[in-house]
Amino acid sequence: MKKKHELLVPVGNFESLNAAINNGADAVYLGGKKFGARAFANNFSDDEMLEAIKLCHLYNVKIYVTVNTLIHDEEVEEAFNYIRMLHKHGVDAVIMQDVGLINLVHQTLPNLEIHASTQMHNHSAESLEFLRKLGIKRVVFAREMSLDDIKDIETDLEKEVFIHGSLCISYSGQCLFSSIILNRSGNRGECAGMCRLPYELLENNKKIKTKGDYLLSPKDLYSFEDFKELLDSDIVSFKIEGRMKSPAYVAVVTRIYRKLIDQYENGEQLTVDHQDVCLLKAIFNRQYTKGFLFKDLDIMNPEAPNHMGIHLGTVIAVTNKKIKIKLDENLKQFEAIRFKNHDKGCVINFLYDQKDNLISEAKKGDVIYLDNFLHIKSLDEVLLTNPLMDIPKNIIKKIEVEISISAYVNQPLSLCVKDEENEIVITGDVVSQSINQPITKDRIITALSKCGNTPFSAINVKVNLDDNIFISIGSLNKLRREALNKLKELRENKKVQYQECKFNRSIIKMPEYGPVINVLVRTKEQVKACKDLGIMNVIVDDSSLMEPYFIYKIPRDKNVHDYSYENLLVTDYASLEKYPSQIADYHLNVYNHYTFDYLIPSCRSLMLSVELTMGQIEKLMSYYSENINAEVLIYGRIELMLLKHCLLKKIINQNKVCNVCQNGKRYSLKDRNNAVYPIINNLLTHGVTILNHEPRNWTKDIQKLLSLKINSFRVELYDESYDQTYHILKSIIAEISDKN
Hints:
The chain is of the alpha/beta class. Helix content is 26%, strand content 24%. The strands form 8 sheets. The protein has an 8-stranded parallel beta barrel with strand order 1-2-3-4-5-6-7-11, surrounded by 5 helices. An 8-stranded parallel barrel has the order 27-28-29-30-31-32-33-39.
């Protein structure tokens, strides 16, 4: 059977949903008012969601609902009830991130399909095996994966990739920048876009001149030039980003990729309409990159973090009252423009020709005038940032049906309506012999072909009838309406194989041990301080510091290697799958006791998410009456971002092969508030970690944590000296000793 390629389209409201359906989406993904990773999109209320499910199924479009945030304990019941409601009403799948909630849903609603969100850091064969055991049907790969990497992974899970739209500079699900700095968690759908802000690059605390200030702002992903390679692969679903984008964006980008998929499946050469691409760029772009998917190193746009538009024309003269512009593209009244160097924009309410007449549009090559209410002072480039598009607010797409009718004397009139899957048969009154004027075949075809404002279009009408019979047009219309209404109802209400099972919680009793301190070190002086204080649980991420019995921290941004070390710190689901019975890091995003219950049997100890407040930790720990080997970060700079993209290689060495990260200098980013964020380059993976500008210090909360049965405490050091390290650790030891 020929593989079906799914085009998966984002929708943030009904207008965008209609645009997706009208332009050929095979499936859409959308979120409710809670638990979705785009909390600031319009999103859908429960009633709107049920309406959307019916609408999608009517047009044979699959609907996937995002429940892809991390969930606090007090939210689990509400989230589960929401998912149960979606399942009962026929949603095709839910997209999820929270391990505990996924396990709960899979165990209790076994017939509901679950897709693993890209927020789960899906980047290796081991991570996919972890997901398979969890009950996942489809995996949305990390956007840092190349096509070759994806094809190399053998799995029974369906593969889905992003092909177009905004990129995160950090691995998705591995970014805590917005959460830690502004208390707006990306893992909770509240990302503040810290990557779109300006930063200075510092080398040994001195500013380095850079081309642009937006050093963390990536371009937008596009794939239409190389789309055939994706279609040739074993990827089944091609996903467009953009639940917060406009209906016009949804319409154009869907249309482009729909054409390409249709061309491929029809055996045609793949071609992209130039006008479509220009229109797409005008609607939204931050410049384009093929991204890591096609190993494009040029993924950053440090000059601007916002919509770039396309070149429209040039300001050739300016007065206090008027701006004179020479157009290089057509322009219409009510379109939006921006003056590039002034960084000012507006919607064109009044457009003038050279005779100062108001006009509604102008052509390429024309000279036009605008009122200078933006106070433009000098010549500039003009960009078109929002072209006018006629986007239907309603569904105009029609569902093709075949209609057949049988009309024989002294037998009930029989009408059959068929779509690609369903068949509706309706019977009417008994057919009688005609007394005066018999009905003709053509009149019957005309009457049955009039589907009116229904979603249907009759592509074929077959008539079987006796001669000299009478059928009223009214009875034909009634039968047609009844049959089409039944077909509409049948398509809207997908049959659900609903089954709900009881969830049995099992708690693994862990071996008892006293409070321990696990210390991540990055210098020899820090190692010495640990030894001098008798601390043996030392974690290193640099193998040159490794000693017997130390703990090696597995990188999060590379396939899991074979390590000969006895003690490891597992940092993601992939390394957890390959190396059970080790200590587990906070990047596993333990937000609730359901997640803790599921993961702890595979760990020696399990660290709670650093996004949890003390109150949330207290709530989580209240579900346990004895030791469970939970760990908390009490001191250290939290890792805010994990990047595959090497900032230093791009900015300092212009993407050439380099050894900047090995030159012994310290690099960091400084934000608008003069906060300085250290950059750590991993020499093994060539990835980048950005640390917080200041360490967390919860050492005064140790007594409280001990009372909650927390028995493992993490310290993560950066550049602390021997004396500083010694002082920090000694004070922690003293706090723990006070309890014991």
